[in-house]
Structures are given as C-alpha cells and as structure tokens.
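Fold this sequence, please.
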Amino acid sequence: VEFRQIHRLKKAKQLLLLGTYSISEIAEELHFSDIYHFSKSFKKAVGMSPNKYIKTIKIQKKILKFNKIF
C-alpha cells in the first residue's frame, strides 16, 4: 500500500469516527473513484468494511462508558 493510500485511509478512519459524513461523502472527499473502491481499499487495510468499523467503534465506546460507571 502506497503512502498516499495509507494517508487517505487514516483520514477516512478519522472522518468515520466523527460520524458527520456518510461513507460515500468520505469516499468522494478523499478522491476515491467510487464507494466500491473505497470500501474495498478500506477493508484490505483495516480488516473490516467501513460500516463494520463504525459499528465496532460505537460498541467499544459503549463498553468504555459502561466501565466508567462501575
């Protein structure tokens, strides 16, 4: 994976965490040719799809919040 691709995918992870933009908006913002190419590249680099990444982060945040209560 080239440096530019790594940088774009790191930025994608940050934008996904914000929850402000849709996956297609992020793909467009980061100049991927289409959402399919973005999702495929993301999954190859991160090990899960953008949707799965978002869900995983939300679950982890809930667990951390719950653990702070106890």
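The helical segments are 3-18, 23-29, 35-46, 50-69. The two ends are 42 Å apart (CA to CA).
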